[in-house]
Amino acid sequence: MPYCRICSSTKLHTFLDLGRMPIPNGFLTKSQLLHKEKRYPLKACVCTTCWLVQLTRVIPAEIMFKNYVYIPSTSTTMLDHFESLSIESSKKAHLRKKNLVVDIGSNDATLLSYYKKNGARILGVDPAENLAKKANAQGIPTMVHYFTKDLARRIVADHGTAKIITATNVIAHIDDLHDAVDGVRALLHPQGLFVIEAPYLVDLIDNNEFDTIYHEHLSYFTIHPLQRLFGKHGLRIIDVVKQHIHGGSIRVYVSHVNSSHTTHPRVGKFLIEEKVKQFHTISTYDTFAVRISQMKKNLVSLLKRMKKEGKSIIGYGASAKGNVLENYCAITPNILDYIVDSTPYKQGKYTPGTHIRIYPEEKLLKDQPDYALLTSWNFAEEILEKNSKYREAGGRFIIPISGLRIV
Ligand code: JHZ
Fold first, then answer.
1. Residues with a CB atom less than 6 Å from ligand 1
2. Could you give phi then psi for residue 250, rounded to 5 degrees?
3. Which residues are CB-contacts of 230 (< 8 A; sequence separation ≥ 6)?
4. Which of 31, 102, 218, 308 could form a disulfide with 162 if both were Cys (CB 3.0 to 4.6 A apart)?
5. Nearest CA to ligand 1 atom 33
6. SS3 letters for 27-77?
């Protein structure tokens, strides 16, 4: 990436190299294990002009998103989260029945279904053919498409402007942010709200959540570069609300510059805090990289010691971030006997790069291994609670991120 995606500066400082890895959701069937997998460099840099953190290299989107295996709807945490997002945003945007809501990266339409329940007109946009097919079959109109300015104009011509546009965990996936934000501007009702959610870079760095850095996530946001981005396109951040989800995220509300929405004082507070916490200083990023390589050493030595003592270990959660952790730390079937995961699309397959077999969650209680490495650590509360029987019978979870610990 020779230029910053937001401000076009060439002043990019590379601070993290996680090595060469396959794409994070590139799960394999048994027969695909025989073929050589394609690996891509995974490096992060920071722009020292607008302080956007980004990957140094962009993998073509078609390789990653045409057929997508991640769905949010198998988690009750995600269902509750999306329901509360729909309630909060509807209130802020004064959403009325028959107003249009468009979700960019609508996945299996979980979020849109809450707006539909409340009488809004809804439209999903997602490039994943398999997920769009499922959503359309469930009565949620979904266009198989990337969100672009051209598409936004087509939607306006066919459906009118949108009172709410949502983009949860998708803005980080977009390479041409200027075109997409121009599209938002064209599609957004004069008093409408664009609502994005993305992992917050401050939490990512503070809690050493390096496994959120993977090929799908091209950018890692603080408010500062986002404000610069929206300002260039006649849009304004009116509020930022911290979210617990995915290790710490930001929900950012954006309106037209001239809308009647007032800007919440929280926005200014986020901007000040990011400066105070030295997110505009290169050493913050360099020291993060040093901590990550130490974390790797600590985790690998713990797992190796447990294996030496004859303990059985499995993985919990075939998440994309789990695949980053396993590839970076070379955690293979020599260490993890298998992984359990609730996603039907992943079960029966093997993890990219490390080739660990994935089974349904029930196998954990049946086999009662000594330890489960919680690679979906961002759902620790939900997963620990649902597996209380495993823990009562002596099973332990190893939580690798945000301070290595055993619970
Ligand atoms: P999870 C995804 O990343 C993909 P991933 C995407 N790129 C993105 O931006 C982030 O989310 C935010 C399983 N699980 O959400 C389901 C159980 O097995 O951390 C999932 O495979 N049992 C769009 O893949 C995985 O864990 C459970 O009880 O890193 C969680 O994946 C629960 C709650 C989850 O995201």
1. 70, 74-75, 77, 169, 216, 246, 317-321, 341-343, 346, 361, 376, 378-379, 382-383, 386
2. -115, 140
3. 181, 236, 237, 254
4. 102
5. 75
6. CECCHHHHCCCCCEEEEEEEECCCCCEEECCCCCHHHHHCCCCCCHHHCHH
Q: Ligand 1 centre from 235 Cα, in Å?
A: 31
**Residue nearest atom 7 of ligand 1, based on CA coordinates:** 216
165 touches 188 (CB < 8 A): yes
Sheet holding 219-220, edge to edge: 12-21, 40-47, 53-55, 219-220
Q: Show Cβ contacts of residue 203 under 8 Å, excluding neighbours closer than 6 positions.
A: 209, 247, 248, 249
Residue (of 290, 231, 242) closest to 50 by Cα position = 231
Q: Whose CA is nearest to atom 35 of ligand 1?
A: 319
Which is the closest atom of ligand 1 to the Cα of 342?
Answer: 18
d(CA 181, CA 256): 11
Q: How far is the CA of 26 from the centre of ligand 1 (A)?
A: 14
Among protein residues, the one whose CA lies closest to atom 10 of ligand 1:
169
- The DSSP secondary structure of 348-400, one letter per residue, reads T-B-TTT--BEE-THHHHHH--SEEEETTGGGHHHHHHHTHHHHHTT-EEEE-
Contacts of 329 (CB under 8 A, 6+ apart): 296, 299, 300
Q: What pTM was estimated for this model as a whole?
A: 0.96
Cα–Cα nearest to 377, from 214, 210, 196, 251: 210
Tokens 């590139």 belong to 26
What token pair was written down for 19? 């090595």
The pLDDT profile of the chain, 407 residues, written as one tens digit per residue, is 689 999 999 999 999 999 999 999 999 999 999 999 999 999 999 999 999 999 999 999 988 888 888 888 889 999 999 999 999 999 999 999 999 999 999 999 999 999 999 999 999 999 999 999 999 999 999 999 999 999 999 999 999 999 999 999 999 999 999 999 999 999 999 999 999 999 999 999 999 999 999 999 999 999 999 999 999 999 999 999 999 999 999 999 999 999 999 999 999 999 999 999 999 999 999 999 999 999 999 999 999 999 999 999 999 999 999 999 999 999 999 999 999 999 998 999 999 999 999 999 999 999 999 999 999 999 999 999 999 999 999 999 999 999 999 99
Token pair recorded at residue 388: 């209380």
Q: Are 44 and 53 in contact (CB under 8 A)?
A: yes
* Cα–ligand 1 centroid distance for 70 (angstroms): 7
